[in-house]
Every structure is written in structure tokens, then in C-alpha cells.
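Illustration 12: SDR family oxidoreductase.
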Amino acid sequence: MTQEVAIVTGSAQGVGLGIATVYARAGALVVGCDRQAAPDSLARLSNYHHVEADLITDGAAKRIVDACVERHGRLDTLVNNAGVGNGQPFEKTTQEDFKRFHEINVTALIECCRHALPHLKRSHGSIVNISSAFGLVGAAQSAGYVPTKYAVVGITRMLATEYGRDGVRINAVAPGLIHSPGTAQRIASNAWWHRMMIEGAPLGRVGQPEEIGEACLFLSSPKAGFITGVVLPVDGGWSVAKFLPNPDFA
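Figure caption equivalent — predicted structure in C-alpha cell form:
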């Protein structure tokens, strides 16, 4: 069976590291990219190749896709994970803040899709875009971030509609609170965040980066061959849990 060839953007840390690790462990030939160097856990894998690049710079998306095709001869899967998070209340969010979020979370994703799609049409491959649970519900004090993650949902559905007849499937994963160095600090220091994001989810825990990777791997696999245009929440139920059970109610 031919090995899957996958690009994972933002692969050096956090969710992206988890995704790249899952694909590599599954036997895929993975080309990762990030502004940072590859961590040792990936760099030592023979089926992982790393490209250091900042996706908001001109030509970076094309360079990454070209590097993958030159190395492996084709491209089967693009996982658009690279992005920036957090945000501020709307009135404190400047025009420059909005521009920064849009450049990486939307424009860079579009450019990666643009350069990958000609190859994905040949391989009848797939794209998995990383949105957010905040791209499915209203969320205060995350201006800049939330609109871009809603945009990822729209881009996913638009591309799925446009490229389905070419045999290309485009889906998205919407993570909830996932463990990373940044979220670990926030959880430890912010009781409100812990209450809203962990206690407010049915499963009552933080997700692991590899759990996002497993969802991506499924969506890009033949097992999901009749699935396109879907936004899959992987959030412990957080996005639907607005009325949790009362433990005092008998």
C-alpha cells in the first residue's frame, strides 16, 4: 500500500506537533513546517522532513508544497494547522491586531490550499483545516481570533463544494481546550478559564494534541471517503454543553 504523503503546518509545537506525530507514527511521509526548528521527537524520524518557514511571508506556502512534491513526488494530504490564538476584548483590539490574526489564520491557509490543490486533484487527496470550537459558538473577549476561525469553517465548506467533483475532500477539525505549554499556564493560573473550559465540558478534561491528530488522520483516510465539508468538533463536548447535569439534583 502506498504511503500517505502529508504536509502539516505549524508542526513544531502544540497541536501541530501532535498531528505530525500521529501521521508519522501511522507510517505517513510527513513534511512539516514551522518558524521554529523541528523538535527532537520529530527530527529523529526517518519519515519526517522539516521546512523552517514563516507562512505569512510571500512565497512560503509554494516553497513548502514544492519541497514536499520534489521530495516525495506527490501530495495526498494538507493539514492547515498553523495559526495564532488568544485575543482581547473587541474595543482593545486594534486594526493591526485584526490584520495579524487574519494573515496567519486565514491568508496563509488560503495560500497553502491554493498551491496544494493542483497536486491534490491528481492524487484525489484531502485537506484538513484546523478551526476551533470558538469558530462554532459565540465567544467574548477573543476578537481577532474568533472571526478568523469562523472564516476557516466557511473556507472549508466553500472548497469542499468547489472541488468535490475533482475527487478532493476538504474537512475541518474544531479543537476545544488542548494541552500545550500556553494552555497549561492559563489553566493553572486562571480559575475562570478552568471553570469555563474544563468544568463546562461534558468530558471534564483537557484534550491532548494527539487526539486532534487522530481526528485529522481519520478525515484524510479512505475510511472517511464519503465525508467532505464537515467541521468535526473535538472538544470534549464543550461546544454543545450549555446545560450540564446538576450534581445536587437527585
